[in-house]
Specification:
- This protein has about 120 residues and is mostly helical.
- Helix content is about 75%, strand content about 0%.
- The protein has a domain at about 1-80.
- The protein contains 4 helices and no strands.
- The protein is extended and about 55 Å long.
């Protein structure tokens, strides 16, 4: 039984490291930079889950698996608008001017940092 768990952990570890490598490869391209980063970040909790299997630690496995599922749901929610087909023969994107969730979070974090710097300067 221990050999099977070790083999499963090594297989999951290699699969998750391959997922991270594919994400980094996608991030090298200009058009797929943001989806590539999201894809690479999505597979990092799978490395933790594989480590939990290899160490026979169920808590590490469950937390890694839970974070993997949450990251997958976040990735699906981020990309759901871009996967819709064009309706009515329109070829343009209806959300061309609408910022993505990533852009909104980046702006919010930037605003917090500017406010923090302003408070330090006062």
């Amino acid at each position: 039984m221990n050999f099977l768990l070790t083999a499963l952990g090594i297989l999951l570890l290699l699969l998750s490291l391959a997922g991270i490598a594919v994400g980094f490869f996608m991030a090298l391209g200009r058009r797929t930079r943001v989806p590539g980063v999201f894809f690479a970040l999505w597979w990092i909790p799978a490395v933790a889950a594989a480590g939990g299997i290899l160490m026979n630690d169920p808590v590490t496995f469950y937390i890694g698996a839970f974070c993997f599922v949450v990251a997958g749901v976040a990735m699906l929610l981020e990309n759901r608008d871009s996967q819709r087909p064009a309706r009515g023969g329109r070829t343009g994107s209806g959300n061309a001017g609408k910022p993505t969730l990533f852009d909104r979070a980046k702006r919010r974090f930037s605003g917090w940092m500017k406010a923090l710097e302003y408070r330090k300067g006062s």
